[in-house]
Amino acid sequence: MRSDNLPKVFNPDGEKIDLTPYFTIGAIGVLSVGLLVFISIFMSQCREKSLIIFKELDLVGLTGKNKSFLGGVVTLYYFMIVGLIVLGFIVHYAFFNS
After folding, report:
1. CA gyration radius for the chain?
2. Distance (Å, rounded) from C-alpha 46 to C-alpha 55?
3. Would you say 75 and 62 are in contact if contact means Cβ atoms under 8 Å apart?
């Protein structure tokens, strides 16, 4: 069995292994569950403040005509997912631009 000092990003044949999509999807999954837990704890601890905060987070252009609690949650998830996808593209471009 041969042991190399090459990082896991390379095959023994010299080809690059691209795991960026898997890390991005995994991060979206983990952060989605974490955000769900955070929202549920925040709602159970201080319901009045959370309703106001999430209502103010709502972007009417993204969710519809009226500001609501659910619109704030959707906006938060939207920016989290878009941010992680953009970060995934930046990492992919930095490591695999050839």
Report:
1. 20
2. 14
3. yes
Q: Is 17 in contact with 9 (CB distance < 8 Å)?
A: yes
Cα 50 to Cα 72: distance, rounded to the nearest angstrom? 10
Read off φ and ψ for residue 89, nearest 5 degrees: -65, -40
Q: How many helices (H) and strands (E) does the chain have?
A: 4, 0
Q: At residue 55, what is the residue type?
A: K
Nearest to 81 by CA among 21, 32, 8: 32
Per-residue pLDDT tens for 25-60? 999 999 999 999 999 999 999 999 999 999 999 998
Lowest average pLDDT, out of 3-12, 34-43, 74-83, goes to: 3-12
Residue with tokens 């106001």: 52
Contacts of the segment 9-16: beta carbons below 8 A, 24+ positions apart = 9/95, 16/95, 16/96
- Of the candidates 23, 4, 2, the one whose C-alpha atom is nearest the C-alpha of residue 95 is 23
